[in-house]
Amino acid sequence: MNRIRKLDHLLSRLRERLFLSLDCDVPLVFRQASSGERAAVALENREGWTPVSRDLVWGEPDGYYWFGGSAILPAEAEGRRIVCRVEAAFGSVMGRCDPQCLVRVNGRIQQGVDGNHREFLLTNCGSEGEQFDILIEAGTIEDRRQLGFALQMQVHDLEVENLYYDLRVPLDVARLLKEDDPRRHFILGRLNAAIDVLDLRPGNDARFQASVAAAREVAAAIYQAVDFEEKPVIVATGHTHIDVAWLWRVRETRQKMARSMATALSLMQDFPDYQFMYNQCVLLDYLREDYPELFSRIDAEVKTGRFEIEGALWLEPDVNITGGEALVRHILYGVRYHQKTFDVRPRMIWLPDTFGYSAALPQLMAKSGLDSFVTHKLSWNDTNRMPNETMFWQGIDGSKVVAYFLTTQPYDAQTYNTTYCPNLKPTHVMGTWRRHGQQDVNSELFLVYGHGDGGGGPTREMLHNIRRMEQGIPGCPTVKHAPMRPFFEGLIGRMQANPERYPVWVGELYAEFHRGTLTSVAKNKRHNRKAEIELRELETLAVMAQVETGAAYPAEALRALWDIVMLNQFHDILPGSSIGAVYDDSDVDYARFFHEAGLLKQSLLSGLPCASDVAVFNATARARSGLICDDQSFAAKAEQVLVGADGKTRFAAIVKDVAPLALAEPAIVVVADDRLSVSVQHLSNGLVSVRFDDAGRITAMVDAKTGRDVLPRGALANRLQAFRDMPAQFDAWDIDDDFEDQIFEIDQLVSAEVVETGPLRAAIRFEWAYESSRLVQVVSLLAGARQVEVETFIDWHEHNTLVKAAFPLAMNAASVDAEIQFGHVKRATHRNTSWDRARFECSMQRWVDMSEPDFGVALLNDCKYGYDAKGTELRLTLLRSPTYPWPEADQGEHHFRYALFIHDGDKNAVHHAAEDFNMPLRLLRGAASPVAADVSATPLIEVKTKSITLEAVKKAEDDDGVIIRLWETTGARQSAHLVPDARFKTATIVDLLEEGGEAFVIGADGLTLTFMPFEVITLKLSR
User: Fold this and answer.
1) Where is the Glycoside hydrolase family 38 central domain (predicted)?
2) Which of 966, 982, 962 is nearest to 1014 (CA)?
């Protein structure tokens, strides 16, 4: 008989004796409760609760049910380890369980229960008649019904459990070794001998237990055997990845966190060698609010070293769409939280599950004292395998950090895909080494293990597996159950000592997968962009109020707003890959954000000195002129009514030379330029001339300065195109490379009319019909601008459809530059290599630009993040409408703007245009009683060097200093001249955590700083 088949069968029989039923279920009562009743239900006396019967039907999406009962131990429990097993219709969908439970025994949180963790401990030494009060909260997510719920008391035999894993783990190693490997035959021989000692006959427990002990002695020879001395080492740390929201709401995640942490703490009682790591501050803080008892126990285990805190970010955000300053805050607030709460300084960016990684990250890490970056997601690439897993990662500024890609997968995997949530078995340990492509460089690797997303993290089985592999099994890599940080400190030390042995990856880590996340659920992208800008302006106003009047800086209110924004930047919320209820919640969040931001802004304005109760606010560090808009008339002859794509109107006027970072009285000027000309087929302002065809598409766009038509001869621009968008999998996540197989021109023009004739702007309104949807655009030219603006309103009612706006350009260019956080990257527009072909949908922040040395066209946007560029055609991705996991994604109204900006090859001009497009001069009403105008016009700081831009102004975290964050925009070394407000006497260059640096005196004419290409410098100004 095949020995492996025999051993598998007999071990399955042995496993049946790990838990022996006492044949006495626990009578239960239950009731349903809302999430808001949780605290009250836990204290109820359960009178009036419904008895649980065998045919109980319960469960609903987003439901909570409470089961209570009293367990009384029978005589057979005397002196035995007694557990309760939960019997429920557990389901598993994409790694998570349903239902998921939190168990209290005698009022104390015991652990989480799910399909992977079904038993919970009552006592290690039972006594007849001993009684335990049990209360279980069960949460259900799926749209299915549960049948029955029961608790069964069982004897848990630890000796049998130990023997089972003594035999099972080496058997799992042996089955993966080659047929001619002598270690395979050695292991199978010892296992066969051990199993033949085991007496499985029923009726005599003493005889059985004696055979268990004897079988363990025989099996011990496996762990004592001498194997190859230079075996690879795999360091293993327990973990559970918990998506803050995805196929469930944030409020359910708070419960997932409690269940998972309770389970981890429970396992630590039985496995003193257990090492567990967690990282997301936001969920730890929710746990502190919701379950202080669990939080206190975690804090105690952090001090013992068994519960490791690592990972510097507030949560695991999307890092393509999230803005630069927001990424800084994720690091700043994350590191400070862990330091303040646990006295731990994290050093790592832990992002195993995010959909691509911005080339801005290495600099942000280096300037925050972070030394390592870990992911596995690029193993999901659909076209190319990343050539290395251990490397230096170099960002756009030249900063280098250590990057490590997890290589865990089953030993016999036929794909490159790896995992960070294995149900750890020998196959994963052996597969981690087999999958690693740099075996000549690294002999020590790292893995994390444990079920994620409500699967409860590591299990007893995983911990037993690790214990056996730690002892040593021939043919299996050496396993160390250890914390994460020492592994990475060792790796970093080896890489720094011998950098020539390790490759350098330069630029972004582009994920060849999940490209649709740059566009799905467009409303959240728009809210995110607007909220980031609102926070920048609020913090600037708050610092102005502090400096000008000594007003208290509203740190708590601002942090509350940041918490809303950061939460909704989670990598399944902002990318648009969650269920509809998540976006119902985010709608509420953003409504609260903008309401509270508005109140705070009015409060700040009421205390700021200004020459008028109506003020113009310039939130940049350079003097600006431009358009201001308001719902009320300016009562000035030079004003104009602007017509929006949604039919709404606003009053507009032009103001000039508004001081940087200051409030100023609106000094409206008359525009004397009379070159505006418009009809339904043309727009012109003397600098740019645009012509349209009968379908509303652009047929020519001529730059008067150069005489060049921006478009190739015969080409059409601002072509609205619809594409079949039915990816083979991951609907909300993916755009497949065959999306162009079906292209539908949106060219059914319903109407075209001139809606503005000047004096400030000329505009044409176009309306198209497409299937059941309506698209409206107002295309406009401002007097004196080399920029055509397109304001868009779409009432969308299609599904599985991708919409782009196409702009073919008359350019000799093989690449584009796309803005990312704190800089830009160059990407090829040809398809020479498989890497080029895979980049058929890419990310940007505010602009993408195609240029020749002295001429270029930039496509600006106010809330879009996806584009494609092939040859010399740019296409802005406007919206998608996936149907999974939210069937109604992107249905309804959309509002956004984009623009074509003509320039002379100057990236600094592109940056300023994009900044002005996203952060126009603001007209603010509600300033304090008028005072002298020269007081209000004093800028906090003025940047005299054009290619140095301001990213943030805020109060320092630990004192009354003012933080000024600046960066270089063109990718060139710069000597920058800065002029702070004269009340600031000293300046300190600090890191992104606002630490370090020596203070120096600010000169009478300001100060000069040297910037490296794309460098971010954080300056602290003090009085």
Assistant:
1) 512-590
2) 966
Query: What whole-number distance in Å separates Cα of residue 117 and Cα of residue 104?
Result: 15
Give the 3-state DSSP-derived string for 910-921, with helices as H, strands as E and coil as C.
HHHHHHHHHCCC
In sequence order, the β-bridge partners of residue 105 are: 108, 134
- Residue 730 is which amino acid? F
Give the 3-state secondary structure of 266-286: HHHHHCCCCCEEECCHHHHHH
pLDDT, one tens digit per residue, over 869-928 is 999 999 999 999 999 999 999 999 999 999 999 999 999 999 999 999 999 999 998 765
Q: At what angle do helices 460-471 and 250-270 cross, to 10 degrees?
A: 50
Looking only at the bridges linking them, the beta strands covering 873-879 and 801-808 are antiparallel
- The second-level CATH assignment, the architecture, of 20-156 is Sandwich (2.60)
- 118 and 153 in contact (C-beta within 8 Å)? no
Q: What is the C-alpha separation between 287 and 448, in angstroms, rounded?
A: 22
Domain ranges of the chain: 3-9+161-224, 20-156, 233-509, 518-609, 672-919, 940-1022
CA 361 to centroid of chain Cα atoms: 13
What whole-number distance in Å separates Cα of residue 644 and Cα of residue 625? 22
Q: What are phi and psi of 738, to 5 degrees?
A: -95, 15
C-alpha 484/C-alpha 239 separation (Å) is: 10
Q: If we measure between CA atoms, which residue out of 821, 885, 889, 993 comes closest to residue 243?
A: 885
The torsion region of residue 618 among left (phi > 0), alpha (psi -120 to 50) and beta comes to beta
pTM of the model: 0.97
The H-or-E segment that residue 186 falls in is helix 182-197
**Are the C-beta atoms of 866 and 826 separated by less than 8 Å?**
no
Q: Which pair of tokens denotes residue 34?
A: 């809302």
Of residues 779, 950, 794, the one with CA closest to residue 863: 794
The SS3 of residue 135 is strand
Q: What is the DSSP letter of 27?
A: P
pLDDT single digits (tens) 180-228:
999 999 999 999 999 999 999 999 999 999 999 999 999 999 999 988 7
CA distance 676 to 682: 11
Distance of CA 132 to the CA centre of its chain: 42
CB 1007 within 8 A of CB 980: yes
Query: How do strand 922-925 and strand 866-870 relate by DSSP bridges?
Result: unpaired
Q: Cα–Cα distances in Å, from 150 out to 97, 153, 432, 793? A: 17, 10, 39, 55
CB contact at 8 A, 409 and 431: yes
Hey, which bits of 693-812 come out as E strands? 698-703, 708-709, 719-724, 743-745, 748-757, 761-770, 773-782, 787-796, 801-808
The dihedrals phi and psi of 954, each to the nearest 5 degrees, come to -155, 165
CATH class held by domain 518-609: mainly alpha
**Domain 672-919 superfamily per CATH:** Golgi alpha-mannosidase II; domain 4 (2.70.98.30)
Q: How far is CA 41 from the centre of its chain?
A: 34
- Taking only the tens place, the pLDDT of each residue in 572-602 is 999 999 999 999 999 999 999 999 999 999 9
Identity (one letter) of the amino acid at 672?
A: A
Burial 71-91 (b: 16+ CB within 10 A, else e): bebeeebeebbbbbbbebebb
CATH class name, domain 940-1022: mainly beta
Q: Which one, of 165, 478, 331, 314, lies nearest residue 821 by Cα?
A: 331
Rounded to 5 degrees, what are φ and ψ at 499? -60, -25
Strand partners, 923: 616
Euclidean distance between CA atoms 983 and 403, whole angstroms = 44
How many residues are given for the chain?
1023
From 1012, 959, 966, select the one nearest 992 (Cα to Cα): 966
CA dihedral 526, 366, 303, 489 (to 10 degrees): 130
- Residue 275, strand partner residues: none
Fold of 233-509: 7-stranded beta/alpha barrel (3.20.110)
